[in-house]
Batch of 2 targets.
Target 1
Amino acid sequence: MYSEKVMDHFTNPRNVGEIADADGIGNVGNPKCGDIMKIYLKIENDVIVDAKFKTFGCGAAVATSSMATELVKGKTVEEALKLTNQAVAEALDGLPPVKMHCSNLAEEGIKAAIADYYEKQGRSTDEVFKFSGFCSSCDCHHHE
Ligand code: FES
């Protein structure tokens, strides 16, 4: 049911942990299952130089977070904001449809961490919130 890439990133996840001096931290929850995710980003001149995650989530959430953190490293924050959960799932050779909601955690965690980075710099977070599935009016970061 899972691709080899999903199994690889689940059994050997990349970038698990914390970044002590992170420039942006995203804390999100998945309303469908109650699982939670924390993403840490180290950002220099708007380029993501390091990314780590911690999750209390299922295997698909672990695999997508592992892949998503790999994909955003080296990208600018603007490029990272365009990373969709579909793109992350495709990079893993697909997820079963019932597990697609799990990939929202990684996408939203990254967006929340970038929003935190913008806020810390006193910049507007409008750019972050214009992306779908991300809500500026409450803390849940997830509206469908
Ligand atoms: Fe909750 Fe997958 S079941 S993130």
Note: The chain has one domain: 4-120.
Target 2
Amino acid sequence: MAGYRGRIAPSPTGYLHLGHARTFLIAEQRARVAGGVLVLRDEDLDASRARPEYARAMLEDLAWLRIRWEEGPQVSGDEPGAFGPYRQSSRFTLYRKVIGDLQRNGWLYRCTCSRRDLASAARAPHAEDDDEPLYPGTCRDRGCVGEGALRFRVPEGEVVGFVDGGLGPQTFVAGRDFGDFVVERRDGVPSYQLACVADDFAMGITEVVRGRDLLRSTARQILLQRALAYPTPDYFHCALMVDAHGQRLAKRSDALSLRAMRERGVSAAEVRAMALGGTVR
Ligand code: GLU
């Protein structure tokens, strides 16, 4: 049996906030309790949004919080670990190979729908926390060629069930809870779903700890793992941070960035307690 390998996977598209702190602290705790290894993967996939100063800040903020990871980029600049590079922008060769594997087995099709087509045709996202609307399948059987995204043809009606370490049994149905999703964007950039599955497999990750807003992404990723004959890791979805009234925090709340809190004089211990408690006071 291989040992526990967990990961934290921040995207350097802004400053880390209390919600990230919560997920990453839980991820670290789980790795420590299991006597395992924690990997940091810099998810700087999207060059139009990722910025080096955010990548630097996220390492500093995590170190300030006293989160420790054994593999991946460090504040000091070296990158321990045998599964690197740990920055997604340096891993495109792997993603291309995995996209090729899916393509050869008939899982993908070209979608030439414009942004406007998608906006008018797509039904609203199923859940308020899902970021990818249900694609109505316009290009599924059209044999589109030329410029366009590559979509994964989800097996209509296939049940994706798993027992979540935090939330218990989960069930999703392909084609109902989510539709054919993008694995490579029109501009050639692999999607989050694709890169995440490729990396979690290549880095030998045994448990994925993430926020519960990503449950449907997990279901999509399990379908990709099945298509690629990869093992499915364990999953642990964390409850999201809420305010004193039980309302979920807005995605980007600058006042709750770790930087801003630190500048206001909030200590790392206080941030840890608040994040693990799950409520902003
Ligand atoms: N980079 C993603 C995020 O920050 C990672 C999510 C995940 O797969 O854990 O939301």
Note: The first strand starts at residue 5 and ends at 8.
